[in-house]
Amino acid sequence: MTDFHTHNDVDYKPALAGARAVRQVRRRYWLLLVLATCGAGAFELLNTAAATTAPATLAEAPAIAPVAPTLTSTNITVANGDTLAALFAARNLSAADLQAIMDLDQAAARLKRILPGDVIHVSYTPDAHIQSLRMQYDEGHNLEVTRQGAVFSAALTDIPVTVVTAYAHGVIENSLFDAASRAGLSDATTMELIQLFAWDIDFAHDIQNGDSFTVIYQRIHRQGQAIADGPILAAEFVDGSKVHRVLRYTDPAGLTGYYTPDGRSIKKTLMRAPVSYSRISSGFSLHRKHPILGFSRAHQGVDYAAPSGTPIMAAGDGRIAFEGYKGGYGKCMVIDHGGGYSTLYGHLSRFKRGTHTGMRVKQEQIIGYVGMTGLATGPHLHFEVRINGVPHNPRTVKLPDTAPVLTQYLADFTSASGNLLAQLTNADDTRLASSAKASAGSETAAH
Q1: Contact 368, 271 (CB under 8 A)
Q2: Which of 68, 235, 275, 426 has its CA 20 to 30 A from that of 202?
Q3: Residue 168 and residue 189: Cα distance in Å, rounded?
Q4: What is the pLDDT of residue 98?
Q5: Which residue would you say has higher pLDDT here, 375 or 95?
Q6: Number of Cα atoms under 13 Å in the Cβ half of residue 106
Q7: 148-165 burial code (b ≥16 CB/10 A, e <16)
């Protein structure tokens, strides 16, 4: 028993200690295995991350863009005696750049003829190399010179314009041109005003002091300055007790014309005076003593005195029925306008080159020139209007209108012209109110 117990005591304790030792070894083994596995994964992850990020931070890093040099801009104003070379040298700007710019045809054409008052805008780098140059090339364009690398290029760019609506009113005291000038109208707009009303008003004889006009027109501005007048949009002319109005209208088809407020075209099929003249030297008369022949006979037209060589226009569309020498008329032309209407032009110095019998002509087309051929005491145009062969007074005969606003566009015309008519009416109301206020002020001052 003793041996048994001794054996057991001796054998049991080592076995127990060995089991514990084995368990400890196993725990350490699995712990090391887990740590080794995790460590390897972490290491691999670190290697993978490094492999992924390293190219982005080293091999594939974007290049840093070069910093653009700071530019200095200046305006150079040209004075009397200045040359471009001297102006650039005074600012230490690159002479080589200037020469390269001057070699550009479009730029050189303008830069070689700089004028006092010209302003040249230049941008350049700290080392005085030109990057851009700009100046006004002509009334409507700028010259733009730009640099790309070492190469310059030049181009013309439009100077923007703005269109504004302008208003003018005048009362005739001495002459229409004097009143128009005082109202701020240019000669070109004044002539347009005359042409618009010439179908109904004889500006050489019918107008008188106290007659007035109102004009709504376009003015074209560039860089804040008025540079030209655009077309007349609406106008009113008060001739004694008669009020004449015209309106500019462009229909949906794109056709532009001038019409009365009820849509009738202001143009007639025939002009009453197809020449610019200084006076009527002889009117229409059934009994006039002929200045050369010395006896009375009918004067079947109107004589418009004008300097020799003054252009004569066709009074209307038609076909030349006669061109040649015709007795007392001298060099003469007859135009058939259709519908029984014809016009005769006498005492011409010569015909327009290229005209001939049978040729079709358009209204206002030049057909000849004022002279004094045939029985004439001075240079003038003898002008006749005939209806079915019967002469009528060109100044008073009722002339047919040209085509009115088409029926399908009348509603559009009424809508478009309403604003212009309102502006004319408002202008008249403003003018009358101003006149009344001025009169009241004068009366108060008198008292």
Answers
A1: no
A2: 426
A3: 11
A4: 92
A5: 95
A6: 18
A7: eeeebebeeeeeeeeeee
* pLDDT of 138: 84
Nearest of 325, 356, 321 to residue 340 by alpha carbon:
321
Alpha carbon distance 363, 143 (integer Å):
42
- Per DSSP, helices labelled H in 138-244 are 176-182, 187-197
> Distance (Å, rounded) from C-alpha 362 to C-alpha 271?
12
Q: Which residues are CB-neighbours of 139 under 8 A, at least 6 positions away?
A: 159, 222, 227
Phi, psi of 318 (to 5 degrees): 170, -165
- Cα separation, 365 vs 337, whole angstroms: 14
Which residue, 292, 400, 269, 275, is CA-closest to 345? 275
Helix (H) or strand (E) holding 201: none
Q: Phi-psi category of 210—alpha, beta or left, where left has phi over 0 and alpha has psi -120 to 50?
A: left
Cα 11 to its chain centre, rounded Å, is 121
Position 250: which residue type?
A: T
66 by DSSP, 3-state: which?
A: coil
Give the C-alpha separation, 244 to 202, whole Å.
13
Q: For residue 294, is pLDDT > 50?
A: no
**Cα torsion 434, 435, 440, 445: sign:** positive
Q: Which residue has the higher pLDDT, 290 or 327?
A: 327
Kind plus residue range of the DSSP H or E element containing 28 = helix 2-57
Class of residue 191 by CB neighbours under 10 A (exposed 0-12, middle 13-18, buried 19+): middle
The pLDDT value given to residue 19 = 54
Determine contact, residues 191/203, Cβ cutoff 8 Å: no
Lowest mean pLDDT among 72-81, 166-175, 226-235, 433-442: 433-442
pLDDT band per the 50, 70, 90 thresholds, residue 252: very high
Task: Please give the backbone phi and psi of residue 287, each rounded to the nearest 5 degrees, phi first.
Answer: -140, 95
Element (H, E) at 419: helix 410-446
What is the rounded average pLDDT for all residues in the chain? Answer: 80
Tell me the residue type at 345. Answer: Y
User: Among 45-59, 90-104, 188-202, 299-313, which stretch is predicted with the lowest mean pLDDT?
Assistant: 45-59
